[in-house]
Design brief:
Layout: E1 4-6, E2 9-11, E3 23-28, H1 47-51, H2 58-61, E4 71-76, E5 81-83, E6 91-95, E7 101-106, H3 111-114, E8 118-129, E9 136-144, E10 154-160, E11 164-169, E12 172-173, E13 181-182, E14 190-198, E15 203-210, E16 213-221, E17 230-239, E18 244-255, E19 262-264, H4 287-290, H5 294-297, E20 307-312, E21 317-319, E22 325-326, E23 329-330, E24 333-336, E25 342-347, H6 352-355, E26 359-370, E27 373-381, E28 395-400, E29 404-408, E30 413-417, E31 427-435, E32 440-446, E33 451-458, E34 467-475, E35 481-492, E36 503-506, E37 511-517, E38 523-529, E39 538-544, E40 549-555, E41 562-567
Antiparallel strand pairs: 1-2, 3-18, 4-7, 5-6, 6-18, 7-17, 8-14, 8-18, 9-10, 9-17, 10-11, 11-12, 11-13, 14-15, 15-16, 19-35, 20-25, 21-24, 22-23, 24-35, 25-34, 26-31, 26-35, 27-28, 27-34, 28-29, 29-30, 31-32, 32-33, 36-37, 37-40, 38-39, 38-41
Amino acid sequence: MKNLIVGSIAVATVFASLSVNAEVVFNDMIGVNDPLVWAFAQSPDNPTVESSSLNTDYVARQAGGTLTSTYTVDAIGGATGVRANGVGNWTIFRTTAPGHMIIADLDTNFGPSVANTNWVLSVTELMAWDGTNNLLGFSHITVGSPADEGSASSVRLMTYVNGVVRLYINGAEVNGGTFIGSIGDIKGQMMNYELAFNEAADTVTVLINRGGFCHYLGTWATSFSDDDRYVEKKNHAITGSENIDWYLGDLTIEIPSPTAVFLDTFGGDGFEIQPVTWSLAGNPDESASANTNLAARQVRGFVGSTYTVDSAAAGSGLRTGGSECIGSMFAPAMFRPTPSGSVTADLDTDFSSSLTNRHWTLSYTSQLNGTGVGWVGFAVGNPADTPPGTAGTGLSFELFRNGEFTVWDGTTTTTNNTGLGLIGNVEIDLTATFDEVADTVEINYASATTNFSLGTYATGFSDSSRFVEVKTRRNGDVGTWDWRVDNLKIALGDSLQSIGDITLELLSGTELALTWATESGFDYALETKADLVVGDWATNTTVSGTGGDVTVTTGVSEVQSFYRVTGE
């Protein structure tokens, strides 16, 4: 911290911040400090020594959560153990022979924070090994009271090396005593295991992402007998003579809460699972499905929205609330236009109060499946236009299946080409970054194999309306056409950066000028207090950022005053 003194004016720490965080109860990122050293000198039956590496700098590693936890580690088998704080942001659980295992218990009971809520436990892991033998082993994640296998109050997920997945509730295997899914060999695959608990409904949803592909493995009844929620991570080798390294990269417990201005996951974060039923009667208004379970789907946004859906051509429609996994998407919305038809979904909320004159992004993940001719895209602007963004009030973007695209700012149409050829059957992350100070938008296209800008274009906002529409149209009678959309998100742009030092100028005995750097699109408050320890900060004045320096002049009446600048 810096204290700048001008005469009798003491200026305390100056900072600026803009943060929109989920309610992350616990997050261990396994940070990097020193090069990894694999030297097992400890006794395999000495948990105190075995835990030392994993507990090194754990507070710093876990700074992203509201709670921290030490670990108690039991490494069963000679030369088996855990090493943290190594190169690559990973902790390594190493087993060296059949029957060896690593058991890492988090010592914190997370029950007081998560019991009786909707919450998510997720673990990222990569399995590597020295040779090519036919290995057999499994990775465990257990939640319970305490998180020991077979507890009368527990949930345990077990994934075998060959991809077989089993789930145990209170020590008994679900699904009639057989596996709940087979996702393919996990060796060398980046894995993300997610258990989404809906404790009001007493259910847990199992989602596994294997190498970028989502697998929904069901929603199952739970029956916790108390509010203890301890967590255990375990890796166990059954066969194979070589070392198996299980790389643990991220362990997170969170309660879904706002992370953006608006975010629709369409699948409700695994808490609301309903099958999609395609039985359309040609009703042109398909808003009912789009507006199902909005609270669960949009819990991660500060602002929610209903939809008005227009399906041109009989049999076209929009469906949400399914349990489909396609690529990395879980339960996406499905737009299905029939030949020469279109489906448009208009968000009924005007986001202008959050976005006007700011830096912000509109993004979504999508995949177009099928053949034929047509386009997918979005529009932003005044809802009186069809679509919004035409007639000089905003922006409209259309991406054609053949790789061409058009950008329309209300007065000018720009046609270009991605150069990628056909974009069907490819998962795409599309992001439009709006700079409303410069009246521009940059559109970015990303897939598993490419990531590049489609260019920067002028926007045509002639009023403050910021309605959003996502849309698809199928031209002609040839081919099938399903457009899936997931994680439709509106977020403020780059985080507000530190303003650095404030320049102070004492203009007279009673006036002080304070100057600091600003960013356009953000507001800044100058706050003051007479005692740095006692009392609350009071707002002196607020100013809007210009992209340059701003100067505020304030009267000084106290013998000593402290000032800070906050931004949002």
